[in-house]
Design goal:
Number of helices: 3
Shape: elongated
Strand order of the largest sheet: 1-2
Largest sheet: 2 strands, antiparallel
Helix content: 25-40%
Structural class: alpha+beta
Length: 96
């Protein structure tokens, strides 16, 4: 499902914004899978948890799935650190 998407002209795969799942906390309920309209998550039937199957399909700065997870198993990187990375990448990928 991953594509050659861009964000502000920057290849999406260079931007480290995507969720992480705490496998110890995840109950495998599938709420994140159904809540995410971008197909970021999938259920790993073998492990009984959700996994981040398509990290770069996540919309940059979107965190709506965090609020859907009742066991707080989803986290994201520090937003300010990602903003700094995007500013750095803008030097290589200036606006058109």
């Amino acid at each position: 499902m991953e594509t050659d998407r861009v964000y502000l002209g920057i290849p999406r795969k260079l931007i480290p914004w995507y969720p992480q799942i705490d496998a110890d906390a995840c109950t495998g309920c599938g709420t994140c899978v159904s809540a995410c309209k971008h197909g970021v998550y999938a259920l790993d039937d073998g492990a009984g948890t959700a996994v981040v199957a398509n990290p770069y399909e996540c919309e940059v700065y979107c965190q709506s799935c965090v609020f859907q997870c009742e066991v707080e198993a989803i986290s994201f990187p520090d937003k300010e650190a990602v903003k700094a990375k995007i500013r750095e990448l803008r030097k290589e990928y200036p606006p058109r």
